[in-house]
Amino acid sequence: MISQAESCPGADYSNVRVIKRNLVYIMGLSMSAGETILRKHDHFGQFGSIKKIIVNPLKNSTACAYITYERDEEAERCIRMVDESVYGGRVIRCTYGTTKYCTFFLKNIPCQNHLNGSGRSLLADCMYLHEVKPATDILKKDELLKSKLHTFDALNRNKEILGVRNKRFAMLDELFKLKTNKSFPAPKTITFQPKDINTEMGKQIRGQSGWRTL
Predict the structure, then answer these.
(1) Between vectors from CA 92 to CA 88 and to CA 93, what angle results, nearest 5°?
(2) GO molecular function of the protein, one example (predicted)?
(3) Which H or E run contains 170?
(4) In whole angstroms, what is the distance from residue 19 CA to residue 78 CA?
(5) Is the pLDDT of residue 172 over 50?
(6) Does the domain at residues 17-99+150-168 carry the CATH identifier 3.40.640.10?
């Protein structure tokens, strides 16, 4: 259960939003960017081990996604590399996602959000927090309107990062399509006569004009 001394005194923890350091929120994706594509190693899978992906379509013909990584440093690496990069012809934005404290955690009782057949709680599957976070991760009302919840700079602004490897191999695939199925018969015999390089070079030198001997 949360102690007032450990976080912001007087706060209503049932309604606060908390930065989740292993959760990445992506904005500006195309509608075709599904979970299978985003999980690929040349997409978001290149930054670490992905636990979960949720893709939500938006009204403006774009989609947003929530990607949960195993470790905080993997999510940070993803944000640094992908934020303000170009994907599908448009600039996408990345920052930390937010979550809430689990109501069962706040009440100091076993979590009931996900139970297995024996009634045992599976905390790993609960989407909400089951640990106390520092006050710096708790967002105020005015901070909820921020488009970025991180302070580090984007490393690949206006550059293509996601799916680049696939594009390189796609060119090779197109070249292979142009390959004909025509086969050429192998010759019955191959005539090969080795030559003495030193002898041949000597003949060429002696045949040049102005040849002189000492």
Answers:
(1) 165
(2) RNA binding
(3) helix 164-177
(4) 16
(5) yes
(6) no
